[in-house]
Hints:
The protein has 9 helices and 11 strands. By secondary structure, the protein is of the alpha/beta class. A 4-stranded mixed beta sheet has the order 1-2-3-9. A 4-stranded antiparallel beta sheet has the order 7-8-11-10, with helices on one face. Strands 5-4-6 form a 3-stranded parallel beta sheet. Helix 8 (255-267) crosses helix 9 (292-314). The two termini are 22 Å apart.
Amino acid sequence: MAADQRPKADTLALRQRLISSSCRLFFPEDPVKIVRAQGQYMYDEQGAEYIDCISNVAHVGHCHPLVVQAAHEQNQVLNTNSRYLHDNIVDYAQRLSETLPEQLCVFYFLNSGSEANDLALRLARHYTGHQDVVVLDHAYHGHLSSLIDISPYKFRNLDGQKEWVHVAPLPDTYRGPYREDHPNPAMAYANEVKRVVSSAQEKGRKIAAFFAESLPSVGGQIIPPAGYFSQVAEGVGLFIGVDLIKDEATRTPATEEAAYLVSRLKENYVLLSTDGPGRNILKFKPPMCFSLDNARQVVAKLDAILTDMEEKVRSCETLRLQP
């Protein structure tokens, strides 16, 4: 531990006193104190190296030297808003326009996905003159109040559904009403959206926008099903969800088991999180520099821990997080 760092226990005590409890802390039973990161790795105050399967925001990896250099050089020259004339913003817009269809040639630059979605919502409402929005069940669109209102993932635990929000079924071919054995699940889910829109229109509502997520493509099973646990991986590229279940017939979410697995992975220096309505989805979203060797290491550790968990279940031992 560096001499200028406070002890981990002191950092935790200060966080608990000064930071809102609604700001989620990973691994609350034994938090990790991360002091630096590089590429796809993060390091704690003791110098232990963790494979980062969580931080997709650092798309090209933590502390990429070219990104650090560019930010440093720009901050030495100018850091202000876009209301002044400057070459960088138009140069970047021009480069982007060359990669897109001609119709998509006007740009807004924003600080976050929440800002982008809020602006998209305002543009749609201004253009149509309507207020109502169709969203997919369990969807999350951002932390702004305007986006909490259209995010079932959030509003169901807060103020509830507004009358101008219309929820269509999530196009989930594993748990949804139209599954992988359906002859045409994409069309079936599209018809569900039509039904939701028609129902809203019958009530005199007028739709301003449809906030949707792309229908996931099957990325293949990254872990062979093993008895008590069955995993289904869906996603594109490095963004993968693994659905951990207790029973293949009922597909009951293995919520406690998922939490236990993530905790055990952390003990094995792999950082991973869970998500989904049942908090049983292992959510892989590492930076793009995540290597094939990293993937093999993570899969090997997952396999070892799952095998150990299965043996504990067979011997009737209880799976629980260790403090």
